[in-house]
């Protein structure tokens, strides 16, 4: 399942927070939160937005590899879907 994670830590550009889009083998946000509670670090597949979409069946995201995230720096988690990206033009 795909998630948007808001991290409470500085981003590369100097912003106080940043977001990570990722994929993790969970059945929903509850399973993802349980995995976060059981691990200091969780390894996820980090996703970037695909800006070269040319058709309707093209995945709007692509993997940039594995990333370990620390549960202590997470401020918010949402399931990534059409509702979370509808107003952002993704």
Describe, in plain words, how this protein is organized in 3D:
The chain is α+β, with helices and mostly antiparallel strands and 90 residues long. The protein has one domain (2-85). It is built from two helices and five strands, in the order E-E-H-E-E-E-H. It has helices at 29-38, 82-85, and strands at residues 2-7, 18-23, 41-49, 61-70, 74-79. Strands 4-3-2-1-5 form a five-stranded antiparallel beta sheet, covered by helices on one side. The relative contact order is 0.28.
Q: Notable features of this structure?
A:
single chain, 90 residues, alpha+beta, five-stranded antiparallel sheet, 2 helices, 16% helix, 41% strand
> In percent, how helical is the residue content?
10-25%
Q: What spatial order of strands do you see in the largest sheet?
A: 4-3-2-1-5
Helix and strand succession? EEHEEEH
Uncertain parts: none
Overall mean pLDDT stands at 84
Can you tell me the overall shape?
globular
